[in-house]
Design goal:
The protein has two domains: 54 residues, no CATH class; 56 residues, no CATH class. It contains three helices and six strands. The strands form two sheets. It has a four-stranded antiparallel sheet with strand order 3-4-5-6, with no helix packed on it. A two-stranded parallel sheet has the order 1-2. It is an alpha+beta fold. 11% of the residues are buried.
């Protein structure tokens, strides 16, 4: 069995039966596309065929924009330093918090993640 398989979406519009023999029976398969719509359709088709299935929510667009906050240190005078890892691209941003102030260094274009982080973590 293959570990990855690239099949154009248009080749799957009539169903997935013609590729089922290329897919593992006892393992979950992750279906991925650019924005989720196509992979969701294919995953549903595969599920109807009785196979384990999952799709990447938001597609590759969401994966490329996902940021994982990781605490990397504490400041001597109080506060914290977080590294935001953009896993899908290998980019890093930094968030330094001290008291009721914060600084984002080398921010990515999706700034909402930093605002949400502050609000959810009640850092400021």
């Amino acid at each position: 069995m293959v570990k990855n398989l690239n099949i154009p979406y248009f080749d799957l519009l009539e169903g997935v039966n013609h590729i089922l023999d290329k897919l593992p029976v006892n393992k979950e398969v992750l279906v991925v596309c650019a924005k989720e719509g196509s992979s969701k359709f294919v995953a549903e088709e595969r599920s109807e065929a009785g196979r384990d299935v999952a799709y990447l929510k938001g597609g590759m667009k969401a994966w490329s924009e996902y940021l994982e906050p990781i605490k990397i240190g504490d400041l001597k005078s109080g506060g914290s330093i977080y590294q935001f890892v953009r896993i899908g691209k290998g980019c890093l941003s930094y968030f330094i918090q001290s008291g009721d102030e914060a600084l984002v260094i080398d921010a990515v274009r999706m700034v909402d993640v930093f605002i949400e982080f502050v609000l959810l973590a009640a850092l400021i």
